Amino acid sequence: MGKGRVEAFTDGVVAIIITIMVLELKVPHGEDLSALAPLWPIFFSYVLSFINVGIYWNNLHNMFHTVQRVDGRVLWANLNLLFWLSLIPATTAFMGENHFAPVPVAVYGVDLVLCGVAYRILVTKLHRLHGNDTAFAKALGSDRKGKISVALYITAVLLTFVNQWIGVAIYFLVAAIWFVPDTRFSRVIEK
Amino acid sequence: MGKGRVEAFTDGVVAIIITIMVLELKVPHGEDLSALAPLWPIFFSYVLSFINVGIYWNNLHNMFHTVQRVDGRVLWANLNLLFWLSLIPATTAFMGENHFAPVPVAVYGVDLVLCGVAYRILVTKLHRLHGNDTAFAKALGSDRKGKISVALYITAVLLTFVNQWIGVAIYFLVAAIWFVPDTRFSRVIEK
Amino acid sequence: MGKGRVEAFTDGVVAIIITIMVLELKVPHGEDLSALAPLWPIFFSYVLSFINVGIYWNNLHNMFHTVQRVDGRVLWANLNLLFWLSLIPATTAFMGENHFAPVPVAVYGVDLVLCGVAYRILVTKLHRLHGNDTAFAKALGSDRKGKISVALYITAVLLTFVNQWIGVAIYFLVAAIWFVPDTRFSRVIEK
Amino acid sequence: MGKGRVEAFTDGVVAIIITIMVLELKVPHGEDLSALAPLWPIFFSYVLSFINVGIYWNNLHNMFHTVQRVDGRVLWANLNLLFWLSLIPATTAFMGENHFAPVPVAVYGVDLVLCGVAYRILVTKLHRLHGNDTAFAKALGSDRKGKISVALYITAVLLTFVNQWIGVAIYFLVAAIWFVPDTRFSRVIEK
User: Where are the domains of chain B?
Assistant: First the structure.
């Protein structure tokens, strides 16, 4: 089964997710700059989520490069990932509109944990399909980065109840780790 | 007439349908977990519809693999299917916001019946275009699964007026039947 | 300049237009069928617009088949068409929410006139670019259908002020004329 | 790394941005033409933004034609541009709903400045990746047009506080400059 349409559909859904978040930036009616001030937590959460969804797009882009085929299990593992990603606009708005209160920040983090787990599942299904001795498996390695991210997200969710800004800081830290696109896959592509 | 753009357009519309449903998950303003509680029927109906639309995407993906060409009738049969699929966000919200009351659950089921019928029409038009002695026709067979689904959806709609949860249970049952992507088509592709 | 990305972008915008119209079908909060009754004008206008946008997609699909190249003028003529098409969700809602009152029905028709004119402009630019002795020009012929549609839409807008249902009837009449995809282009493709 | 999916994703996001702006054209409930009158500033700002986003799509379309490959830096520079473009629906609505008051007009301009800067950054990263002696570099030249646009936008933002219509006029002036698609790139493509 070809990977072309899975890529196209995934790109489509991710493009919509990343764009509809902006619908939350509801327009203030005041005419001066102070009217924009109450928007900052919504804007700030939008920036964080734009980066996070951008990272997923980037990594999916690089990963699918070395993928050679897909099967039914991969299609569903991919839809599972898209499901948790599709909740990001809602959890982002929940966090932003409640001005980064602890529970919404934790809920946002739980969604990130589930996205991370879904990504790991997708990678595992692809690994099983391709076998150990393929470009895909070599590029993936032990996927330490993926495992560390999930662990950090869980830590962030827990620490949110000490102080929510620790949670937010860890979300940015994980984003920074992934910011550089997954060079493992690009390194293999170069060869 | 090539099938490429029909596939791309269909993927685009389905990607948008599956994603805009999340706009119904309107953000609660409370800052704690109890604020999320009233969202459960909307979330639950979102999950059901995400799976249903995902199944359509999956099956359309597999089916178009064995398709060799399309004509005007197929284009319109496809748009007809997209029309009924495009109502799913509205019927999902109707069902979720009314906490699975019988009439909204039945209306949701009627939309599923119409999607199922539209899928059958599309398959029939493609069958007629390709003839009996083609990969497409062999993969399709008698389409028992498609016919049973429509029959089950009609049963579900009727039983909703006895107890709506029977209806909901049947919707999940049909989803489970289709969850495994249509191996008939993939089996033919493998060869 | 290749036509691939213009097709893809056009498909994307049309897919979004056809899908976001459904956001107007706002969910009623009543739990029984009578709650759906007030939705009928919005649903009815949605059906009409879904068919109209579907027709444009269909005809653009067929037309671009015989197109061989595009230039800057074509890109802008295409964006111009997309602009007027992008207003259809708004004019549809204006018509539906005001229960097919004369002025909204006329405004809807004016948008259809402008879409029709924009389509004629696009076709003319493509004709000029391809020259008379090409598959495109032969498929296009005198474009009587395009010219008649614009004339009928103008008539419909004017007759709306006698009785708006005459206008609505003509909108459906034009849709019926175009419903069969433009066989001129498909005929040329067959050869 | 191939450029195909970056193009497709970019097209998708731009298609969504250009289309969701129309959701701001909220339907008036009056039944006559006077009901449309209060919409003019929103409609006027929609037209300006449709042209602006259309210009970006057009120029990205032409620019990616001469691009031969992309790397991680280009992907992020592209996402950065998409981020600032994604704010256009919000800044457009802010400007339109406040009837072109000075501060919203300036905020809109600041977003255009940031889009322009992001476009320059993207072009620079691509230039560095391709080297000086390539079709891309030759097509780009000194990018005077890009630099002048940013300078004009900054001027427009400042002059908005003298009179906001000077700002709006300059926004239209820059649009006019870019309206003709970037012939530098198309000239190279022709060869």
Answer: 4-190
